[in-house]
Amino acid sequence: DLLDSLLQENTMQVVAGLLVSVLILSCLDSNGLPKVEANPAPIPDICDIKVEQAIDCHYDSTYDRCGNSVCMKGPGEVCGGKFGRYGICGEGLMCSNCGRCQGCSYKHFVCWSDSQCIW
After folding, report:
1. pTM
2. What angle do CA 57, 94, 61 make, to 5 degrees?
């Protein structure tokens, strides 16, 4: 009689443990992480942002990756960034590792060297 009650108590503990395990596992994804169903706000595409069209550009104009007409940057001006977000250098200039147009402008024959750039 005592053996039967111990077996029954152990069986109930095992069943309860299995139920808790199943419940926990049903809340995890295949990587063992908690299941999260998020509905984040959409991130606008960079081309959805309106850009003022280039009109009178000192160092000429070009088109950005979205097809917008933008003014090119001159010697010493900020340039570069992801997808040229801070500007594209004019002819004869290139963007230094420190994000400044360096070289000699073919349009105005003005030169600039990024001597402070240590990259």
Report:
1. 0.56
2. 20
- Token pair in block for residue 53: 């069209």
Render 65-114 in DSSP notation, one character per residue.
Answer: TTS-EEEPB-TT-B-BSGGGTTB-B-TTEEE-TTSBEEEE-TTT--EE--
Confidence of residue 44 (pLDDT cuts 50, 70, 90): low
Q: What is the rounded distance in angstroms from the CA atom of residue 27 to the CA atom of residue 36? A: 9
Q: Give the 3-state secondary structure of residue 8.
A: helix
Rounded Cα distance between 77 and 103, Å, is 11
pLDDT (tens digit per residue) in 48-91: 777 777 788 999 999 888 888 899 999 999 999 888 889 999 99
Q: Where are the alpha helices (DSSP H) in the chain?
A: 2-26
Q: Is 60 left (phi over 0), alpha (psi -120 to 50) or beta?
A: left
17 pLDDT more than 90: no
Q: Find residue 69's DSSP bridge partners.
A: 63
